[in-house]
Amino acid sequence: MPSSPPPAPPDALRATAVALLNLSGLGLGYLLVRRRLPMAACLAATVVLLLVALPADADGVPAAASAGYAVVLLLAAVHGGRVGLRTRLILPGRRSLALLLGVALLAVPVGGALWYDSAHQEAVQRALLDRLDHADERVAAAAHEGFAAARPDYQDALAVYRDLAVHHSGSRAAAQVPDRLRTYYTTVAAAYGHHDYCTAVAPLEYLRTVPDSLPKDQLGALAHWPDDRLATSLYECGAQGLTGDGTDWVPRFGELLRTFPDAGQSAKVTPALDAAVKKAATAVSGDDPCTAVERLHTLNSGITQLSDGSGTQAGALGELASRAGRSGDAGEYQCGVRQYKDGDYAKAQGTLQQFLTDNPHDGNGARARKIVIGAEVAQTLPAAGKRLPTTASGGGISVTVKNDSPDDITVLYTGPVTGSFTLKACGGCKAYSFAATITPGWQPCGDSARNYPQRTISLPPGTTYFVHQPKNDTTATPGSDTAKLRYGYVYTECAYTTQSLTSGY
Length: 505
Fold this sequence. Notes:
The chain has helices spanning 12-23, 28-32, 36-53, 63-86, 95-105, 107-142, 147-167, 172-188, 190-193, 197-207, 216-219, 225-242, 249-259, 264-267, 269-283, 289-307, 314-341, 345-358, 365-380, 434-437, and strands at 397-404, 409-414, 419-423, 454-459, 462-470, 479-485, 491-497, 503-504. It is α+β, with helices and mostly antiparallel strands.
């Protein structure tokens, strides 16, 4: 067979047959016109395309490869047609057969393309299912971590579900997204299923944001699935906190009342708080009244916060807060008495002074004032605190207290009776030096020519503890005396001041 046969007369049918045979990608048109190198080039291009395309995967054939191969086929068809126009076939007189064969062999590239597209689509489906499975695995693994640590994994999995549902809505993976979302919700909210209500709050709050990122038709009833569970968790968590001493129940109940004002769980808030107030008020009469008073003040503050912006419950909560405050204020008396009996005289004094401020007309006010005096005396003379002051007054023994001091003096006393009074400063009197106080024969209030400010009180027999201090100088060291009073004697106390600002008798 000569490599270059003599030119033949132009034949369009032959040219068409060669061109169609070359479109098959096998270079058969070149075979019929004896063009081995172009035929080899066509076969090589087809082999390269097959190596690139197979096996079919989700990424498909690179666009450059597809475009390059298409250009090769078109060039082979055009070039083959030109060659076949004036070149005889190796099978003379078989132009029609070659043409029919060319048409038939077009099924090769067309069928191959259709087959590859089907294989590619299946690969895409498998890849999407793999993405779905991987997202499910992340959700399952995140279930073993705390929500804060697991949240990024939950968000990444949700992004996969959304992408499948929105951008691959016709895929087999997308069809499974609604079922996977039900598993997703129950996994994220697993703490609720375990009745760990405080832990469940954050995950359920997160689940309420999911509808913002997913089509409604993918969620269905899940769109409102977290609502009742979150309301329950907020109430139960708040109720648990209410049994303790803290205030963590305030934000829980507050969020419940704001977010679900008409829910049945919200209706339970006021009764729960009412029960807590009653329990604390009852505890004021128990063994630890100070803790109960503190609890009532905490309840008052927390309920007051809740009453702001709580809608229809604002009035009831406001009244409940006031009741807690009143009970706490009234309980300060029992608290102060307990502190006095426990020997914490400074706290007792402060607590009872606050009680008198908060409850100016309380029936325990008179005795509270006496205990305040006794507590102040006991801070200087601890023995005075062994007996809780009463409201008793008067007695048959006269005790005169004189002031030999340049300052107004407050005199406090407690024992069988308790009281206090103030003596004005002694005009012309001065503070004594330490040397004067140790001079033989020295005696305060000893100037018979001086008219010392004085006051005489009547006391019953027994031990009375005296403390006096400059009225306007809280830094001075108080003077003190313990007097054992008996009938048949007249007693005199003298208040004086030394230059070191220490007062005495």
